[in-house]
Amino acid sequence: MNEQISFIVDIQNIDLELLKLEKMLKEKFKEIERAEHLLGTKKTDMEKLNEELMEISKKADAAELDIKSCEGKMIKMKDTQKLIKTNKEYNAIQKSIKDNEILKKQLDDESLACMEDKESLVGKITAIQKEIAEIENDLSDRNIEYKEKEEESTVIEKGFIDKRESVKSKIKNDYLNVYETVRKNKGFPAIASVMESGACTGCYRMLPPQQFNELISGNVFMQCPICSRILYIEASLPEAAGLK
Ligand SMILES: [Zn+2]
User: Fold this and answer.
1) In angstroms, what is the span from residue 90 Cα to ligand 1's centroid?
2) What span, in angstroms and rounded, lies between the C-alpha atoms of 46 and 132?
């Protein structure tokens, strides 16, 4: 293979490794962001549940007070009943007692319903607290892992950058400029192999036969007429081996 072409392939491989590192860190960072978002949602849910619990507790306390007052009235009415002389008074107090009993029954039901609601809310809050603790643990692990990966990546990246500088110094400026321009405009691959069929693996279009032959015979510096990517023939292709 033409030496210059092989250097460009080398520099592309280094650039791909650098990109992989960058993507890996970005993905880890996104995972942290997702966990943080989930944590925020769960905390908001818990706040709402706590507010609901407070409301229910207030309602339960009020029902308890009403029950007490009902019971107090009942005692008084029963005492009054003993002193009653006329039928009319007796009937009136009987009615009041009955009404009070109905009211007390309603209040008891209400109080019971409050208790049940409270119990269910406390259950939900306990569950969400557990979830929050788990997410917080997970987040702390992820942050530690991210720091480690970041440090690790910095070292690996430095190695690649040094290697890149060394390869870069061997590539002719004109070629390097083409590589950088294509990389910027098209992304990877900036240097694309050509298939046995004569198709560019950058755009999957066929090269004109003459150009393909020229490439096979010398693996010269050539750009795809369609996508502008730098072209090369992989050494493993039989044509390259046979025709060279
Ligand atoms: Zn192409």
Assistant:
1) 106
2) 9
